[in-house]
Amino acid sequence: MPTRKILIALTSHGELGSTGRRTGFYLPEAAHPWKTFADAGYTVDLVSVQGGKPPADGVDPSDPVQQAFLDDPEMSNKLADTLHPDQVTATDYDAILYAGGHGVMWDFPDATRLAEIARNIYENDGVVAAVCHGPAGLVNITLSDGRYLVDGKELAAFTNDEETAVGLAEEVPFLLQTQLEQRGAKHSGAPNFQPWVVRDGRLVTGQNPASATGVARQVLTILGGEG
């Protein structure tokens, strides 16, 4: 029975390698899916690797969707104190979406409890989705049969070319596209920073921030909602 609830996963990592710059989750990649899900009647919960208040990046007050997300009393409270993975029951959710932001490259791959939640949602006929760097959360998810979730799957993620274009290919712990391909994923992409969404069964992935709304719409399509 559908729960009409979707979980958005966020990074807890706020330092951009050795650059001295701050990073975190990329706000529009949480806000735009939230708007799409909420408009379709879904409740959205937020979880982060360590729980509590996660670091945010990419905040643009001129974006009305971001501002609506920050101004919404319910989401503001949830963002101020996100769920810890140990507080999450996977069967409460129809889908999980891993939001991006460079911070995820440091803490999503080894977030084993988040991986368990995603696996359980997926194996309970739910949807696993990720956008931009969010697929870093997918690289170490294994299914009950021991195979990587992404093995043999068509997907999208922030490309090696895009990482080079933003000047961080030498700074991130690994190249996301390469790592996913090493796990057996069939990666495809659009030109740099253009929207690109790939659906393979109940796995939905998007290449970059421009793909966030498209990912959310595909999730709703799978769940039988509008979008």
| Helix share bin | 25-40%
Number of helices: 8
Unreliable segments (pLDDT under 50, ≥5 consecutive)?
Answer: none
What characteristic shape results from the CA principal axes?
globular
Distance between the termini: 20 Å
Q: How much strand content do the residues show?
A: 15-25%
How would you write the strand order of the largest sheet?
A: 3-1-5-6-10-9
Structural class: alpha/beta
Gyration radius (Cα, Å) is 16 Å
Task: Report mean pLDDT, rounded to a whole number.
Answer: 96
Let me know the number of strands: 10
Largest sheet: 6 strands, mixed
Q: SSE order in H/E notation?
A: EEHEEHHEHHEEHHEEEH
Give an account of the 3D structure.
With 227 residues, the chain is an alpha/beta fold. It is 31% helix and 16% strand. The strands form three sheets. A six-stranded mixed sheet has the order 3-1-5-6-10-9. The protein has a two-stranded parallel ribbon with strand order 2-4. Strand 9 and strand 10 (203-206) form a beta hairpin. Helix 1 packs across helix 2 (64-71) and helix 1 (27-39) runs parallel beside helix 8 (212-223). 51% of the residues are buried.
